[in-house]
Amino acid sequence: MEFADKNILIIGASSGIGLATAQLLRRLNANLYTASRTHSPELAELQTTFIELDVTQPLGTALDGLPEVLHGVVYCPGSIKLRPFERIPLADFQADFQLNVLGAVQVLQACMKRLKKADGASVVLFSTVAADTGMSFHASIATAKAAVEGLTRALAAEYAASNVRVNCVAPSLTDTPLAAALLNTPEKQEASAKRHPLQRIGQPQDLAYMASFLLSDHGSFITGQVLPVDGGMSKLK
Fold first, then answer.
1. Beta pairing partners, 10
2. Whether 48 contacts 11, CB under 8 Å
3. DSSP string, the chain
4. What is the rounded distance in angstroms from the CA atom of residue 46 to the CA atom of residue 144?
5. Which of 27, 30, 189, 223 has the most other CB atoms within 10 Å of its CB?
6. How far, in Å, CA of 155 to CA of 59, rounded?
7. In the chain, at which residue ranges do the beta strands (DSSP E only) sit?
8. What are the two backbone dihedrals, phi and then psi, of residue 8, each rounded to the nearest 5 degrees?
């Protein structure tokens, strides 16, 4: 894969999957524009064009400085708030929807004209294995991510004629700061690994490689898809 002279925007690039994707794309010579609420030391090392951005708030003019042509957008923000359904306040459902769905909506609305000018652009969104496979205590995040999957297919259909591809990656539990509370002991790590047919949990790099493939010319015939990167959890017993 080669990204020389390609402008890629990564939202949520300061840690986890977003950071791993930025690191990989930097090695592949992409022109990187990154946005998140904080500018982490690891992200600073990549010397990207950084934009301070909180996607739960109106974007205003935050993305106006992007180049006229964008070849790709990766939207990585996510949330993990697991609790019994009867104990999830409505505000948590609203917060998950705001971050995962409406944040992506406003970013893509701000970027679509730039993507259409690329004559072959790619959008990568992120869902979760829990949107397709029922899991206890995942009601809020599964609801929001299922909406992301619907958005993926709708936008893929709408912008296919403009040669803008839209796909979604659906990971299982991945070893990121977001999942730290679920993996903070060797016992939890072992139990989580055993739930996967491949007997391990996901790593940020696993998702970064898939996102980069979908952004690349190698993925130019793929659109409207939700692609599981989940160690076989969603399909195998």
1. 34, 74
2. no
3. ---TT-EEEEES-SSHHHHHHHHHHHHTT-EEEEEESS--HHHHTTT-EEEE--TTS--TTTTTTS-S--SEEEE---------GGG--HHHHHHHHIIIIIHHHHHHHHHHHHHHTTSSEEEEEE--GGGTS--TT-HHHHHHHHHHHHHHHHHHHHHGGGTEEEEEEEE-SB-SGGGGGGSSSHHHHHHHHHTSTTSS-B-HHHHHHHHHHHHSGGGTT--S-EEEESTTTTT--
4. 31
5. 30
6. 20
7. 7-11, 31-36, 49-52, 72-75, 121-126, 164-171, 226-229
8. -125, 130
Is residue 79 predicted with pLDDT exceeding 90? Answer: no
**Residues 30/122, Cβ–Cβ less than 8 Å:** no
Three-state DSSP state, 203: coil
Tell me how long the chain is. Answer: 237
For residue 34, what are the β-bridge partners?
10, 50
Q: What is the DSSP letter of 20?
A: H
Q: What 8-state DSSP symbol labels residue 99?
A: I
Q: How far apart, in whole angstroms, are the C-alpha atoms of residue 186 and residue 44? A: 31
pLDDT at 184: 86
Beta bridge partners of 36: 52
Q: Is 34 helix (H, G, I), strand (E, B) or coil?
A: strand
Domains present along the chain, CATH in parentheses? 7-175+204-222 (3.40.50.720)
Residue type, 235: K
pTM for this entry: 0.95
Residue 48 has pLDDT above 90, yes or no: yes
- Distance (Å, rounded) from C-alpha 73 to C-alpha 33? 9
Closest CA to 205 of 12, 20, 74: 20
Answer whether residue 57 shows pLDDT above 90. yes
